[in-house]
Amino acid sequence: MATTGAGLVARTTRLDTDVDLLGFAGDDGLLFESTEHGVAGRGEALRMPLPTGAARPTDTADVVAAALGEIEVDDEVGRPGTGAVAFAALPFDDGAEACALVPSLLVGRSTDGTRWLTRIGTRADSGDGGGVEPSGGGSNGAGPSRFSVTSSRAPADWCGSVAAARDRIRSGALTKVVLARELVVEADEVLSPAEILGRLREGYPSAYRFSIDGFVGASPELLVSRGGDIVRSQPMAGTAPRSGD
After folding, report:
1. Helices and strands: H and E segment counts in the chain
2. Residue 68 — φ and ψ, nearest 5°?
3. How many Cβ atoms sit within 10 Å of the Cβ of residue 34?
4. Which of the four pLDDT bands, split at 50, 70 and 90, describes residue 216?
5. Secondary structure letter of residue 21 according to DSSP
6. How confident is the model at residue 135, as a pLDDT?
7. Poorest-pLDDT segment among 14-23, 134-143, 172-181
8. Cα gap 146→181, rounded to integer Å
9. What is the pTM assigned to this prediction?
Protein backbone atom coordinates (compact mmCIF):
# COMPACT_ATOMS: atom_id res chain seq x y z
CA MET A 1 0.00 0.00 0.00
CA ALA A 2 1.35 3.42 -0.99
CA THR A 3 1.50 6.60 1.11
CA THR A 4 1.69 8.96 -1.88
CA GLY A 5 -0.07 8.92 -5.23
CA ALA A 6 3.15 9.00 -7.24
CA GLY A 7 3.46 6.01 -9.58
CA LEU A 8 -0.22 5.00 -9.30
CA VAL A 9 -2.68 4.83 -12.20
CA ALA A 10 -6.50 5.02 -11.89
CA ARG A 11 -8.25 3.27 -14.79
CA THR A 12 -12.02 3.84 -15.05
CA THR A 13 -14.30 1.90 -17.40
CA ARG A 14 -18.06 1.77 -17.86
CA LEU A 15 -20.14 -1.02 -16.37
CA ASP A 16 -23.06 -2.46 -18.30
CA THR A 17 -24.65 -4.15 -15.28
CA ASP A 18 -26.29 -2.66 -12.21
CA VAL A 19 -24.29 -2.34 -8.99
CA ASP A 20 -25.45 -2.73 -5.39
CA LEU A 21 -22.99 -0.37 -3.71
CA LEU A 22 -23.75 -1.60 -0.19
CA GLY A 23 -23.38 -5.22 -1.27
CA PHE A 24 -20.07 -4.37 -2.91
CA ALA A 25 -18.69 -2.59 0.16
CA GLY A 26 -19.72 -5.37 2.54
CA ASP A 27 -18.49 -5.28 6.12
CA ASP A 28 -14.96 -4.02 5.53
CA GLY A 29 -15.29 -1.79 2.46
CA LEU A 30 -15.91 1.93 1.97
CA LEU A 31 -19.28 3.43 1.12
CA PHE A 32 -20.97 6.76 0.44
CA GLU A 33 -24.38 6.48 -1.20
CA SER A 34 -27.83 7.99 -1.45
CA THR A 35 -30.91 6.73 -3.25
CA GLU A 36 -29.73 7.55 -6.76
CA HIS A 37 -25.95 7.89 -6.68
CA GLY A 38 -22.82 7.00 -4.75
CA VAL A 39 -19.51 5.16 -4.67
CA ALA A 40 -18.18 2.09 -2.88
CA GLY A 41 -14.64 0.81 -2.57
CA ARG A 42 -12.62 -2.21 -1.48
CA GLY A 43 -8.92 -2.65 -0.81
CA GLU A 44 -6.41 0.13 -0.21
CA ALA A 45 -4.28 1.72 -2.90
CA LEU A 46 -3.34 4.70 -0.75
CA ARG A 47 -3.63 5.65 2.94
CA MET A 48 -2.78 9.26 3.79
CA PRO A 49 -2.21 10.50 7.37
CA LEU A 50 -4.09 13.77 7.79
CA PRO A 51 -2.99 16.97 9.54
CA THR A 52 -4.07 17.80 13.08
CA GLY A 53 -4.95 21.17 14.59
CA ALA A 54 -7.65 23.80 14.21
CA ALA A 55 -6.99 24.22 10.48
CA ARG A 56 -7.52 20.49 9.83
CA PRO A 57 -10.46 20.82 7.38
CA THR A 58 -8.58 23.20 5.07
CA ASP A 59 -5.25 21.41 5.47
CA THR A 60 -6.91 18.05 4.84
CA ALA A 61 -8.41 19.28 1.57
CA ASP A 62 -4.97 20.45 0.43
CA VAL A 63 -3.25 17.17 1.41
CA VAL A 64 -5.87 14.99 -0.29
CA ALA A 65 -5.98 17.14 -3.43
CA ALA A 66 -2.18 17.00 -3.74
CA ALA A 67 -2.09 13.20 -3.33
CA LEU A 68 -4.91 12.60 -5.80
CA GLY A 69 -3.24 14.96 -8.24
CA GLU A 70 -0.19 12.67 -8.30
CA ILE A 71 -2.26 9.71 -9.51
CA GLU A 72 -2.33 9.27 -13.28
CA VAL A 73 -5.89 9.02 -14.61
CA ASP A 74 -7.18 6.93 -17.52
CA ASP A 75 -10.91 7.64 -17.47
CA GLU A 76 -13.39 6.79 -20.23
CA VAL A 77 -16.43 7.88 -18.18
CA GLY A 78 -15.52 11.36 -16.96
CA ARG A 79 -18.16 11.80 -14.24
CA PRO A 80 -17.87 13.08 -10.65
CA GLY A 81 -16.76 10.05 -8.61
CA THR A 82 -14.71 8.43 -11.36
CA GLY A 83 -10.94 8.18 -11.23
CA ALA A 84 -9.21 8.18 -7.85
CA VAL A 85 -11.56 8.85 -4.91
CA ALA A 86 -10.55 9.45 -1.29
CA PHE A 87 -12.74 8.61 1.72
CA ALA A 88 -12.17 10.24 5.11
CA ALA A 89 -13.99 10.74 8.42
CA LEU A 90 -12.59 13.61 10.49
CA PRO A 91 -12.84 13.31 14.31
CA PHE A 92 -14.37 16.14 16.32
CA ASP A 93 -11.11 16.20 18.30
CA ASP A 94 -8.68 18.21 16.16
CA GLY A 95 -5.76 16.50 17.87
CA ALA A 96 -6.91 12.94 17.17
CA GLU A 97 -5.23 10.94 14.42
CA ALA A 98 -7.09 10.51 11.14
CA CYS A 99 -6.38 9.31 7.63
CA ALA A 100 -7.87 9.36 4.15
CA LEU A 101 -8.24 6.13 2.18
CA VAL A 102 -8.15 5.62 -1.58
CA PRO A 103 -9.54 2.16 -2.46
CA SER A 104 -7.81 0.02 -5.06
CA LEU A 105 -11.17 -1.10 -6.49
CA LEU A 106 -14.14 1.27 -6.70
CA VAL A 107 -17.60 1.11 -8.26
CA GLY A 108 -20.05 3.97 -8.64
CA ARG A 109 -23.29 5.11 -10.17
CA SER A 110 -24.69 8.54 -11.04
CA THR A 111 -28.24 9.88 -11.05
CA ASP A 112 -28.64 9.27 -14.79
CA GLY A 113 -27.88 5.56 -14.39
CA THR A 114 -24.25 5.61 -15.54
CA ARG A 115 -22.17 2.98 -13.72
CA TRP A 116 -18.42 2.54 -13.63
CA LEU A 117 -15.50 0.57 -12.25
CA THR A 118 -12.16 2.11 -11.26
CA ARG A 119 -9.03 0.06 -10.57
CA ILE A 120 -5.97 1.71 -9.03
CA GLY A 121 -2.49 0.22 -9.12
CA THR A 122 0.96 0.77 -10.53
CA ARG A 123 1.54 0.95 -14.27
CA ALA A 124 3.09 -2.54 -14.05
CA ASP A 125 -0.21 -3.95 -12.79
CA SER A 126 -2.39 -5.74 -15.30
CA GLY A 127 -4.86 -3.43 -17.00
CA ASP A 128 -7.71 -5.88 -16.39
CA GLY A 129 -7.14 -5.87 -12.63
CA GLY A 130 -5.88 -9.44 -12.50
CA GLY A 131 -9.33 -10.89 -13.06
CA VAL A 132 -10.89 -9.13 -10.08
CA GLU A 133 -14.62 -8.60 -10.59
CA PRO A 134 -16.81 -5.97 -8.88
CA SER A 135 -18.50 -8.50 -6.62
CA GLY A 136 -19.59 -7.69 -3.10
CA GLY A 137 -17.76 -8.11 0.15
CA GLY A 138 -20.79 -9.48 1.98
CA SER A 139 -21.61 -9.71 5.66
CA ASN A 140 -19.46 -11.35 8.32
CA GLY A 141 -22.07 -13.90 9.34
CA ALA A 142 -25.53 -14.43 10.83
CA GLY A 143 -25.04 -11.75 13.49
CA PRO A 144 -25.91 -11.68 17.19
CA SER A 145 -28.69 -13.74 18.74
CA ARG A 146 -29.26 -11.22 21.52
CA PHE A 147 -28.28 -7.66 22.41
CA SER A 148 -29.08 -4.98 24.95
CA VAL A 149 -29.51 -1.21 24.57
CA THR A 150 -28.88 1.08 27.52
CA SER A 151 -28.48 4.83 28.01
CA SER A 152 -25.25 6.14 29.49
CA ARG A 153 -27.26 8.92 31.19
CA ALA A 154 -30.08 8.54 33.69
CA PRO A 155 -33.50 9.68 32.40
CA ALA A 156 -33.74 12.38 35.06
CA ASP A 157 -30.31 13.75 34.07
CA TRP A 158 -31.30 13.84 30.40
CA CYS A 159 -34.60 15.60 31.12
CA GLY A 160 -32.70 18.10 33.27
CA SER A 161 -30.39 18.91 30.34
CA VAL A 162 -33.36 19.48 28.05
CA ALA A 163 -34.99 21.81 30.60
CA ALA A 164 -31.74 23.72 31.13
CA ALA A 165 -31.29 24.23 27.40
CA ARG A 166 -34.87 25.46 27.07
CA ASP A 167 -34.42 27.94 29.92
CA ARG A 168 -31.19 29.33 28.47
CA ILE A 169 -32.88 29.88 25.11
CA ARG A 170 -35.77 31.66 26.83
CA SER A 171 -33.32 33.90 28.70
CA GLY A 172 -31.52 34.85 25.49
CA ALA A 173 -28.23 33.21 26.51
CA LEU A 174 -28.50 30.74 23.60
CA THR A 175 -30.25 30.82 20.24
CA LYS A 176 -29.92 27.17 19.33
CA VAL A 177 -29.02 23.92 21.08
CA VAL A 178 -28.36 20.46 19.66
CA LEU A 179 -28.63 17.78 22.33
CA ALA A 180 -27.39 14.21 21.94
CA ARG A 181 -27.89 11.17 24.14
CA GLU A 182 -25.48 8.24 23.98
CA LEU A 183 -26.88 4.73 23.75
CA VAL A 184 -24.64 1.71 24.41
CA VAL A 185 -25.38 -1.47 22.46
CA GLU A 186 -23.89 -4.77 23.65
CA ALA A 187 -24.26 -7.99 21.63
CA ASP A 188 -23.11 -11.59 21.92
CA GLU A 189 -21.56 -11.50 18.43
CA VAL A 190 -19.77 -8.91 16.31
CA LEU A 191 -22.22 -6.50 14.71
CA SER A 192 -22.13 -6.45 10.92
CA PRO A 193 -21.67 -2.98 9.35
CA ALA A 194 -23.37 -4.23 6.18
CA GLU A 195 -26.37 -5.44 8.18
CA ILE A 196 -26.62 -2.12 10.04
CA LEU A 197 -26.41 -0.13 6.80
CA GLY A 198 -28.96 -2.40 5.15
CA ARG A 199 -31.42 -1.65 7.95
CA LEU A 200 -30.68 2.06 7.71
CA ARG A 201 -31.25 1.95 3.94
CA GLU A 202 -34.59 0.23 4.44
CA GLY A 203 -35.72 2.58 7.21
CA TYR A 204 -34.29 5.83 5.82
CA PRO A 205 -33.99 5.40 2.05
CA SER A 206 -33.43 9.11 1.32
CA ALA A 207 -30.52 9.46 3.78
CA TYR A 208 -26.83 9.51 2.87
CA ARG A 209 -25.29 6.28 4.12
CA PHE A 210 -21.58 5.93 4.83
CA SER A 211 -19.05 3.38 6.01
CA ILE A 212 -15.49 4.65 6.41
CA ASP A 213 -12.80 2.77 8.31
CA GLY A 214 -15.23 1.46 10.95
CA PHE A 215 -17.40 4.61 11.13
CA VAL A 216 -20.93 3.71 10.00
CA GLY A 217 -24.11 5.75 9.82
CA ALA A 218 -26.77 7.62 7.84
CA SER A 219 -27.66 11.30 7.68
CA PRO A 220 -30.42 13.29 5.92
CA GLU A 221 -27.95 16.14 5.40
CA LEU A 222 -25.41 16.78 2.68
CA LEU A 223 -23.51 19.74 4.06
CA VAL A 224 -21.73 20.60 0.82
CA SER A 225 -21.00 19.07 -2.58
CA ARG A 226 -19.17 20.42 -5.60
CA GLY A 227 -19.28 19.27 -9.20
CA GLY A 228 -17.15 21.50 -11.43
CA ASP A 229 -18.19 25.06 -10.57
CA ILE A 230 -21.56 24.03 -9.11
CA VAL A 231 -21.71 24.01 -5.28
CA ARG A 232 -24.76 22.66 -3.43
CA SER A 233 -25.66 22.57 0.25
CA GLN A 234 -28.73 20.99 1.85
CA PRO A 235 -28.45 21.20 5.64
CA MET A 236 -31.55 20.09 7.55
CA ALA A 237 -30.72 22.00 10.74
CA GLY A 238 -30.44 25.45 9.15
CA THR A 239 -32.89 27.16 11.50
CA ALA A 240 -31.11 30.54 11.64
CA PRO A 241 -32.56 33.28 9.39
CA ARG A 242 -30.80 34.05 6.13
CA SER A 243 -28.51 37.06 5.98
CA GLY A 244 -27.97 39.43 3.06
CA ASP A 245 -25.21 37.26 1.52
Report:
1. 4, 15
2. -65, -35
3. 17
4. very high
5. H
6. 59
7. 134-143
8. 23
9. 0.82
